[in-house]
Specification:
Layout: H1 8-14, H2 51-64, E1 67-71, H3 74-82, E2 90-94, H4 99-110, E3 115-119, H5 124-130, E4 136-140, H6 152-161, E5 165-169, H7 174-177, E6 187-191, E7 205-209, H8 212-225, H9 231-241, H10 244-264, E8 268-272, H11 279-287, E9 294-299, H12 302-312, E10 317-318, E11 328-331, E12 345-349, H13 355-366
Parallel strand pairs: 2-3, 2-4, 4-5, 5-6, 10-11
Antiparallel strand pairs: 1-7, 6-7, 8-9, 9-12, 11-12
Helix pairs in contact: 1-2, 2-9, 3-4, 12-13
The structure holds pyridoxal-5'-phosphate.
The site of pyridoxal-5'-phosphate has 15 residues, from α3.
């Protein structure tokens, strides 16, 4: 099959379809089998392989420009990279990384396994210094939930000069909007729970290695530690991937409208969205094909006001997670490990509803400030 030169949206629809003989199914079926009839050499066991995993992995690998390995969750995919490191290895990670990533790193530090160096990635000199003697640089762009953007190519150059590998959490952008391997990343990870599967119905992760050796080390971690995905999960994620280009286009257009309306609202003190202002703007426009479907904003009445908004929305759902068809809102600082997050920050995952209905709901809820004395 001549797949050279396919654009990302075409790959999302066409990759991972298995064999293509007349009469073959259009979709790789769900294989429910824990074992396979023995071959002359080797063991074929369900913890090692599944045709459905491979279909999903083919598609993600092609989108990211590497070789993908699916895991039970995003955090399991992230863990597979950390557990591939040696005892005593140093990891440089952003102070505003996803809370689950920071918790996992903190656990490895407490066990004395990893030397974890959390730094402000906006401070290029601090990153440079921390990279001395490090084995891995971890990046997340845009970050969850502050929507900070970092220059992946620049960070990768700094890390590689110091002899460190580079891993990027690409969950917020998806490979349709950002391809970290083209910018120098050695590993990419996703919470496929979010935009890739896209329907708030499964948990799944995927890690991608830039070359076969790196992918093989991820696969070995999966087999040895057992954080394998379910066959139904990879089927549903690949099914969700087919509509990712259309879902992204629509939610991104809605996000853009909401960003500009929130920015003009008297009770909104700050809106965060990739590339909105400052040096992030040029970086986001250079390394991303679009600015994404997640935004955060802060409100004038503090955390009580933010909580009231979550209680008062009708159409928008008050729930954690992101990337589904329904618009979700959450005051992130309620969760554990969110010391970096402003207390009145609301994260909004923009869904597929009509933009006017989302805005009407949000505008109405914004007026319910419990501290307002009118
Ligand atoms: C949700 C999330 C994860 C963790 O993924 P799970 O599928 O929940 O394990 C990792 N990184 C980012 C940026 C996320 O939003």
């Amino acid at each position: 099959m001549a797949t050279n030169g396919w654009r990302q949206a075409t790959i999302a629809i066409s990759a991972g379809r298995g064999t293509r003989a007349p009469g073959d199914p259009m979709n790789v079926p769900i294989h429910l089998s824990s074992t396979y009839r023995a071959a002359e050499y080797g063991l074929d066991y369900g913890r090692e392989k599944n045709a459905g995993w491979e279909a999903f992995e083919d598609a993600i690998g092609m989108l990211e420009g590497g070789k993908a390995v699916a895991f039970a969750s995003g955090i399991a995919a992230i863990g597979s990279i950390f557990s591939g490191l040696r005892a005593g290895d140093a990891v440089v990670a952003p102070a505003d990384a996803y809370s689950g990533t920071r918790r996992l790193l903190a656990m490895e530090a407490v066990r004395g396994v990893l030397d974890v160096r959390l730094v402000d990635f906006a401070d290029r000199d601090a990153v440079s210094k921390a990279c001395a003697g490090a084995r891995l640089l971890w990046a997340e762009s845009p970050s969850n939930p502050l929507l900070n953007v970092v220059d992946i190519a620049d960070l990768a150059a700094i890390a590689h000069r110091a002899g460190a590998d580079v891993a990027v959490d690409n969950t917020f952008a998806t490979p349709l909007l950002q391809r970290p391997m083209e910018l120098g990343a050695d590993f990419v990870v996703h919470s496929a729970t979010k935009l890739i599967s896209g329907h708030s119905d499964i948990l799944l992760g995927v890690a991608v290695g830039a070359n076969p050796d790196r992918a093989e080390s991820l696969r070995m971690q999966r087999t040895a530690r057992g954080a394998i995905p379910g066959p139904l999960e990879t089927y549903l994620a690949l099914r969700g991937l087919r509509s990712l280009p259309a879902r992204l286009d629509r939610a991104q257009a809605t996000a853009k409208h909401l960003v500009s309306r929130l920015g003009r609202h008297p009770k909104v003190t700050r809106v965060r969205y990739p590339g909105l202002a400052g040096p992030d703007r040029a970086i986001a426009r250079r390394q991303m094909a679009g600015l994404g479907t997640i935004l955060s904003f802060e409100v004038s009445g503090g955390p009580a006001h933010a909580d009231a908004i979550c209680r008062n929305v009708q159409l928008i759902q008050h729930a954690t997670s992101l990337g589904g068809p329904e618009t979700l809102i959450e005051r992130r600082a309620r969760a554990a490990g969110e010391e970096m997050t402003p207390p009145a920050l609301l994260r909004l995952s923009v869904g597929q509803e009509d933009v006017e209905d989302i805005w009407a709901d949000l505008a109405e809820a914004l007026d319910h400030d419990p501290d307002d004395r009118r």
